[in-house]
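Sequence decides. Our protein:
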Amino acid sequence: MAKRHAIAMASGIMPEATPLQLVEAAARAGFDFGGMWIEPDDWTIQTTRDVKAALRDAGLKLLDVEVVWIKPGPHNPDHDRIVEIGAELGARNVLCVSSDPDRSATRDKLGRLIDLGHRAGIRVNLEFGLFTEVKTINAASALLQELDLPAAGLLVDALHWARSGGTLEDIAALPSRWLSYAQFCDAPEQGPDPRDDAAILEEAIDGRMFLGEGGLPLRGLAAALPATLPFAIEQRSKPLRDDYPDLNERAKVVLERSRAFLEGA
């Protein structure tokens, strides 16, 4: 496969990193884009200034910021802050998931965030997965169809898509207007029991693999997505963290291995 997709470093590759370390590691490794994790309780106006300066100095753009996590109850003002911070940092996308079992509430809160992002110039993307209350690509699609908002986005994570029973036909049926980027990683072909919530979550945060080392149908997935769609390498992995404790070395290895796979080596 010829290189067609810009590659971003998802922040999950290094959950222990500070915001400035995320910028440094992505830029030094040579990623096309960075990703940023925003903890509202720890993020200050000065953090925004520092990260903007670091991005400018490194010549790096952010593909996304995360995570807006919709939960039961009223709208959380911190979610607005994440969207607004992401827009100020110049990020293209916000990653959003929902653990609110009230489908109508999820839809309404998501719609509010999409509208806020649209006004701020950043797209809010709904990610589905068995670890959330929007478990499948079809459930996510149905929500976005109901909202019918021009700035709505749907995020396909290769692991969550595979573990939730998604098919290549489901990918091909997605409106291209919903797709801003996708998250790629590999994993064993056979995953945990879909009914075992703890095992599903453990794999998602600790068990992902280098592209091409597992059994996910990544080449078929890449072919079914738009040819120039950016890919964020979401390789959350305890072995990766243990083998590469140096953040810059970790980023370098992930980029090299990901590029080699995507270029067909």
Remarks:
- The mean pLDDT is 96.
- The two ends are 8 Å apart (CA to CA).
- The longest strand covers residues 62-70.
